[in-house]
Amino acid sequence: MLTPKQLRMAKRRNPRARREPRPIAEQTTSILIYDLHIPHNYRFVALPWVGLRYPELRHASLAGHQAQFTDYTGRTQVFAIKWPRVGFGFRPYFVCTCGRQVTRLYIRYGTLSCRRCSRLLYASQVCSRQMRPRLQATRIRHFLDSMSEIGKPFPRKPKTTMRFKTYNRLKSRALALESKITRKGQHLSNRFSTRTLWPRTNYNSRRTVLSLG
Ligand SMILES: [Zn+2]
């Protein structure tokens, strides 16, 4: 049976306190393991540039079996690295404190953890069913041209980094999504920053996506 609203509110420690909304993954600083060039042996290598890319961190040191991240308070967080077999090779994964093997660690209030431990949501999970085609179509447009917007002429093919076949595939996919946008999905959530609207994959083309830190 559903709990009545009054009872639910009464049981809260501070009924007036509003909970912080769950943050959006795309807008949270994160470390992708493939960006770090993990060594294939047990010797630790320091990454002096780590603070330039991830402002929350002061120092990082990596070996094939472990990653150590130090922040500005001097706290060091250690993550094991595992190399499960994928296809014909091996691929590195961080092991989060919860035991999950992940490729990306998120930094929230100075603490590194996986997406689930950080309680993050993907932007698409925040969207309603009406909003989602708009988000997807915007990402495809930004992949072709970062200034492009829905309602304006479709961007031209990037000259050197894409084949016509790929371009036509993306164009038809984006236009199909745009035709699905209804009046209800006209606006995206106002929690989204431009970062959320950046493409997340390279859509099987040779064009590279800016890796999001
Ligand atoms: Zn975790």
Strand order of the largest sheet: 2-3-4-5-8-9
| Low-confidence sequence ranges | none
Helix content percent band: 10-25%
Which whole number gives the mean pLDDT? 89
- The total domain count is 2
Number of helices: 5
**Rg over CA atoms:** 21 Å
Bound molecules: zinc ion
Strand content: 15-25%
Shape: flat
Structural class based on helices, strands and sheet pairing:
alpha+beta
Provide an overview of this structure.
By secondary structure, the protein is of the alpha+beta class. The protein has 2 domains: 25-113, no CATH class; 124-197, no CATH class. It is built from 5 helices and 11 strands; from the N terminus they run αββαβββββββββααα. A 6-stranded antiparallel sheet has the order 2-3-4-5-8-9, with no helix packed on it. Strands 1-10-11 form a 3-stranded antiparallel sheet, with no helix packed on it. α4 runs antiparallel to α5 (164-180). The longest helix is centred in the C-terminal third of the chain and has 17 residues, at 164-180. 21% of the residues are buried. Bound molecules: zinc ion (ZN).
In short:
With 213 residues, the protein is α+β, with helices and mostly antiparallel strands. It has five helices and eleven strands. It folds into two domains: 25-113, no CATH class; 124-197, no CATH class.
Protein topology:
Layout: H1 5-10, E1 30-32, E2 45-46, H2 50-53, E3 57-62, E4 66-71, E5 76-82, E6 85-86, E7 89-90, E8 93-95, E9 101-102, E10 104-108, E11 111-113, H3 123-126, H4 132-144, H5 164-180
Antiparallel strand pairs: 1-10, 2-3, 3-4, 4-5, 5-8, 6-7, 8-9, 10-11
